[in-house]
Write a structure and sequence with these properties.
The protein has 98 residues and is α+β, with helices and mostly antiparallel strands. It has a single domain, classed as BolA-like (GMP Synthetase, Chain A, domain 3), CATH 3.30.300.90. 37% of the residues lie in helices and 26% in strands. It has four helices and three strands, in the order H-E-H-E-H-E-H. Strand 2, helix 3 and strand 3 form a beta-alpha-beta unit. The protein is globular. The mean pLDDT is 87.
Length: 98
């Protein structure tokens, strides 16, 4: 699966699972060219995800929720995943950073 297809898969899975208020997916693979993990074909991605589903959950729980949804892509199409998750209420108050 190429990086563009992986981004579309990420977007579809995260949208289905979290109905995000805001979603950004960055393919950061080019910055890791030559890295041992990149040689296996897995990409490096950064995700910023804002969702009401994160309300009342710790940051660790939020990341576990995302990892559970993406489990079929992790270790294959995705070698490394940077997550920035924010509850929707915090985003709405202008508290864009946790």
């Amino acid at each position: 699966m190429d990086a563009e297809t992986t981004v579309r898969s990420l977007e579809a899975a995260l949208t289905r699972a979290f109905a995000p208020v805001h979603l950004e997916i960055e393919d950061d693979s080019a910055r890791h060219a030559g890295h041992a993990g990149a040689a296996g074909g897995g990409g490096h991605f950064n995700v910023k995800l804002v969702s009401a589903a994160f309300e009342g959950h710790s940051l660790l729980e939020q990341h576990r929720m995302v990892n559970a949804v993406l489990k079929d892509l992790l270790g294959g199409e995705i070698h490394a995943l940077g997550l920035h998750t924010v509850p929707a209420s915090q985003w709405a108050r202008g508290g864009r950073e946790e």
